[in-house]
Design brief:
It is a single chain. This protein has about 600 residues and is an alpha+beta fold. It has 14 helices and 37 strands. The longest helix is centred in the N-terminal third of the chain and has 14 residues, at about 140-155. The chain binds guanosine-5'-triphosphate and magnesium ion.
Length: about 600
């Protein structure tokens, strides 16, 4: 009798899209128009992108909750990242939602991550409201994009009801949403109304016991660990005694020491929270994402959150370079291990494997960008460590080695198609589709091994003079397509410890592209540049000019070195080969050969 009730006072939505299609900016406008800020208050842009790295890079990295009120209904919003490497965050966010706002850029149209996130909402059976965003763009083609979205729904096997999706046109940045392009509107009221009308209110069952699914973790200095998630049935009360059911079906007792709900971007303490609401609960330390919190009397776990498997793995070790321990505060393997475990608790897409060597860990995730963000975060916390090349994760089926394959979508000037196709075919990629609509730009689709894309993005941008756009989506596992070099150039390797000098670097410039400037510390085995040819060479970057008493006029060469593009972490991990590592400290990024001594390297390679 009391089944299938709905809490009409609440809506839970996730905002999903391909990267940069305007999710976080739309949330700003929703905040403004729901009266969250007093008029005239200066507010930062993309206020939900609160992490330092998010603000610096202008992208969302972690999914985050907030809420707005509209006509007496609380809309819990989860802003998600659009970058493919953070797809696990979308999967986690959807576990709290009853529906999703799918944003699609009115010029770019549906892109690979649009497909990924839409597929995930279908798998969860969630209602989707489509918002064709950025219709103010000069190159906007909203009606065409609507057709493309419809095609995408068909492609993903949407049923009739899903195909009849509600849609709006919007300029998120100006806070405008409308049903018809010709309509004159200057607010988001229609979006709020559509959410209230189309997204089902959270359903609950009074005959079921209390259940809350933990979908996120937080930490507060005063309260300790915070469990964040949605209440599925019954009401939570401050001081209630509960149990947390973990992945091994253990029942860990807890008492709700504080109960909070989202109020705008902040949290508000409450005495009780109703079914369907998203709460932040304190009172338990040992809780993980996916656990269910329920009563002691009726412990009944909900289905755990599942996310896609990791696709790449990377070696993390303590820093063993001769310069280790000079720049970082935290260098011990125990601390690195603790930090990585902490990451796996919060980040559902990251896995950690301990190896036999206690100083060496294997970290698995969704992509090298995700790894770079993790490493960058660690170095900012004061860590010093070394990392190896990102490697794809192979599988084996009936004795056949399988490798991950991606569909690669390229949009570039037709003149660059030749060089792009050539580079991709060397890397065992195949052209699968080509559209030339005679506009001067072409759209090509390739099927490529994932491993060939590691480090390729930079080259692609250089090859297309910065104008090409590439997007990828994981397509599945296929038989291994054969070897090709991970890099077609060699490394210039320092043969001794010292300090680099201008004279030596100047004379090395013709050999390739240098990574260091005069006055930097170097050591034997440190990679100081990229060699033009496919083999490594040794060099002495601290070689001074021989001083003679005889200074012949006109013979003194000027030794002004060319500017060096600073080595970033992302470039470094994409650049190194299997026998090379990146040394990361709060101040420096250095590259080195795993075997520092040239003699030992030669011996290993069977050379004398
Ligand atoms: N022309 C136009 N640009 C917009 C609009 N909304 C957002 N933008 C711009 O699009 C860029 C990306 O906006 P974000 O809100 O960060 O996009 P996002 O979808 O949250 O990006 P990720 O979270 O990294 O996936 C920013 O430069 C915005 O200023 C719009 O309505 N029109
Ligand atoms: Mg964002």
């Amino acid at each position: 009798m009391n089944k299938n009730l709905r809490n009409e006072k609440i809506r839970n939505i996730a905002i999903i899209a391909h990267v940069d299609h305007g999710k976080t900016t739309l949330v700003d406008a929703m905040f403004r128009q729901s009266g969250l800020f007093r008029p005239g208050l200066e507010v930062d842009e993309r206020i939900m992108d609160s992490m330092d790295l998010e603000r610096e890079r202008g992208i969302t990295i972690a999914a985050k909750n907030c809420s707005v009120q509209w006509n007496g209904v609380k809309i819990n919003i989860i802003d998600t990242p659009g970058h493919a490497d953070f797809g696990g965050e979308v999967e986690r966010a959807l576990s709290m939602a009853d529906g999703a706002i799918l944003l699609v850029d009115a010029s770019e149209g549906p892109l690979p991550q649009t497909r990924f996130v839409l597929k995930k909402t279908f798998e969860k059976g969630l209602k989707v409201v489509v918002v064709i965003n950025k219709i103010d763009r000069k190159d906007a083609r909203p009606e065409q994009i609507l057709d493309e979205i419809y095609d995408l729904f068909i492609d993903l096997d949407a049923d009739e009801e899903q195909l009849d999706f509600p849609y709006l046109y919007a300029v998120g940045r100006q806070g405008i949403a409308k049903k018809n392009l010709s309509e004159n509107r200057d607010d988001l009221h229609l979006l709020f109304e559509t959410i209230l009308h189309e997204i089902p209110a959270p359903e609950y069952d009074t005959e079921e016991p209390f259940q809350m699914l933990v979908s996120d973790l937080g930490y507060s200095d005063y309260l300790g660990r915070l469990a964040i998630g949605r209440i599925f049935n019954q009401t939570a009360r401050f001081n209630d005694a509960m149990v947390c059911i973990n992945n091994t079906e253990e029942h860990l007792p807890l008492k709700i020491s504080k109960l909070q709900v989202y109020d705008g971007m902040n949290l508000k303490e409450v005495e009780t929270a109703k079914p369907g609401d998203i709460v932040v609960l304190s009172g338990i330390e040992d809780v993980k994402i996916g656990d269910t919190i329920c009563t002691k009397e009726f412990p009944k776990p909900l289905k755990r959150i599942t996310v896609d498997e990791p696709t790449i793995s990377m070696e993390f070790t303590i820093n063993t370079s001769p310069l280790s321990g000079k720049e970082g505060k935290i260098v011990q393997s125990g601390k690195i291990r603790e930090r990585l475990i902490k990451e796996t608790l919060k980040n559902v897409a990251v896995r950690l494997e301990q190896t036999e060597d206690r100083d060496r860990f294997i970290v698995k995730g969704r992509g090298e960008f995700q790894m770079a963000i993790l490493i960058e975060t660690m170095r900012r916390e004061g860590f010093e460590l070394s990392v190896g090349r990102p490697n794809v994760i192979y599988k084996s089926l009936n004795g056949t080695m399988l490798e991950p394959i991606e569909a690669l979508f390229v949009d570039c000037d037709e003149h660059f198609l030749g060089v792009v196709t050539e580079k991709i075919s060397i890397r065992k990629g195949r052209l699968t589709n080509l559209v030339n609509n005679r506009s001067g730009r072409i759209r090509a689709e390739f099927s490529v091994p994932s491993r060939s894309l590691i480090g390729y993005r930079d080259e692609f941008l250089t090859d297309t003079k910065g104008t090409g756009i590439m997007n990828t989506i994981f397509a599945g596992y296929e038989p291994f397509r054969g070897d090709f070099p991970t890099r077609f150039t060699g490394s210039i390797v320092s043969d001794r410890q010292g300090s680099s000098v201008a004279y030596a670097l100047y004379h090395l410039e013709p050999r390739g592209r240098l990574f260091i400037v005069p006055g930097e510390p170097v050591y034997a085995g440190m990679i100081i540049g990229e060699h033009n040819k496919g083999v490594d060479i040794s060099a002495n970057p601290s070689k001074e000019k021989k001083l003679t008493n005889m200074r012949a006029a006109g013979k003194d060469e000027s030794t002004v070195c060319s500017p060096v593009k600073p080595m970033t972490l992302e470039r470094a991990i994409n650049f190194i080969k299997d026998d090379e590592m990146v040394e990361v400290t709060p101040q420096s990024i250095r590259l080195y050969k795993k075997t520092l001594s040239i003699k030992k390297r030669k011996h290993k390679n069977g050379l004398n």
